[in-house]
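Let's do one together. I've listed all components of the complex below, 685 residues spread over two lines.
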Amino acid sequence: MSTPVTVAPNQSAHHPLDEFLRTDRIPHIWCPTCGLGTVLNSFLTAIKDSGIPRQDIAVVSGIGCTGRTAGYVWLDSFHTTHGRALPFATGLKVANPKLKIVVISGDGDLVAIGGNHLIHAARRNMDMTVICVNNFNYAMTGGQFGPTTPRKAKLTTAPYGSYEHPFNLPFLVESCGATYVARWTALHVRQVQTSFREALHHRGFSFVEVISPCPTVYGRRNQLGSGLDISMYYRDNSVVKHNADTRECDIRYQESIIVGRFVQKEKPTYLDTMNEYLTETLGSKYTPYQGPMSDGD
Amino acid sequence: MGSSGTAVLTGAHYLDGDYACAEGAIAAGCRIFAGYPITPSTEIAERIAKRFPTVGGTFIQMEDELASMAAVLGAVWGGAKAMTVTSGPGFSLMQENIGLGMMTETPCVVVDVQRGGPSTGLPTLTGQQDMMQARWGSHGDYEVIALSPSSPQECFDLTITCFNLAEKYRLPVLFMMDECVGHMTEKVVIPEPGRIDVWPRRWYRGPKEEYRPYLPDKDGVPPMVKAGEDYRFHVTGLTHDERGYPVINAECQKRCVTRLSTKIRENADDIMIIEEDEFVRNGSADVVVVAYGISARVATKAIDEARARGVKVGLLRLITVWPFPEKKIHDLAGKVKCLVMPEINLGQMYREMQRAAEGRCKTALVPHCGGWVHDPSDILAAIMENSK
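Okay, and this is what the predicted structure of the assembly comes out as:
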């Protein structure tokens, strides 16, 4: 059952997370009661709590509603092409290994057009955090079905309901080699913050899926109520199952959602394996990459 | 500024164009390479994969060309000099992120060792069919810089020039090799590091809080920073203002896109490298062959033969193919009977030459569909026909 919520207007001119926000770009473009505001808030809180110096964090996004996140965070941030946030981030990481790189993008961007990059970044155990905000559709273009749309959900390009088999993202990324995998819904605010913080401190490919309401298109077309209704529905129909077998984490239309931290394990990262292997193989001939150029170069 | 250290293989070598290009990249300070194997460019990636671990570079083989180009851009914003190499089909895939590189003004080098197309075409055989794709391959309006080498020595030398131009004008510079030059083995002399001109990044040196990612210097090019230095800058492929923030209107679009073009157009004289022989220089030629890449070398045989037959014919070799030397061609067209262009396509740079000539002289195309270089007698026939 959902609980009534009263939202008090914020009287303060400052938000406690302003130090991480490009306040000159606020208001953002996201719809009222979209889950992205909550996700952004959770992300910035996690950064603040993580103790990682802000200059060491870079955010990379692709295209779409979630892709706009890079434009709001007051950090080094890159808004790239559709689907290519992960390979861009890969280049950024190998060129500047001290950076903690966070890719924040949507399900269509990361899993459809960027699907090939997702599986390979996971396979390499590239040391980066991926936050995948899954709203089950392409929202910015007006609500088309995508690779995560549950069967039977109606969208503009699935006017009679989607009949495709959707991806189960935790299973997909775990089977490709991700070493940290979690899923929550946008209203699991504390759990989302904890998972983001754990992911930021995880060495290797960490993946956090956040199931997020899209009231304007997915919600309206399927008559699911307001964003708050949808958010609370997702939260209230979640089953927390840490270490769940990811093969069983499929999401069906308006059925229960298995959430929790599913995977957390150690495995050498891409750069670790490269450095170890080349040191072992080439010995003193191996000259590791010395890091980025300085402004004296 | 000289090239750094022990990485440079100073001395005389017997190298093919692909290997020479790899050595040029190393000498230019390229230390991140992201690529995907494709004939006939693969030998560049192979050479880099072998050499980089011994010279402080990181080679990463990506899952496709879309990823390769994206990784190069990421590496540059991370503070490295970076490159990718490919051929026609991969060049098509890279256009998406070449566009992002143009819009975000990201200095890097993209090498296209051209083969015959369209589509899979002739994987192992030569072509010069990507010249217009180099110019217009990605959507939207932007100006490009593209160079074309005629020898393995130039594959070394001009790769360095490509990196230098990329840093100076902040854009992806396209190096339009062809299979013939890439697989041709000749003497390549690599100078001492101190004698190699390597240009630094245009680092921003003002106060941190005043940094505006797209506030240009006087020459229209903005200085740059790298991630991780607490500048907290934003970069986007959307139309953006000087702060790098998206602004979606016609006014900002005009400012943003105009500068992407003018920074190249207004500096075209500095960018353009052409080679004229004495017949062109002293104005005595009746016919001038305008050519680039391997076709310029094949043309010399035809030119020698035509001269032996008493024709006053010169060679104008385009080393910079984009921006196209419009004024030079226009002036030349006023002094000669005909401009002849052999190229291994059905007329790409030729149309540009025809446009620049503005009807002031005849123009003749010597086309070739690809798969092999011209028979010099075809070029000779065009010279003889048009010298009358």
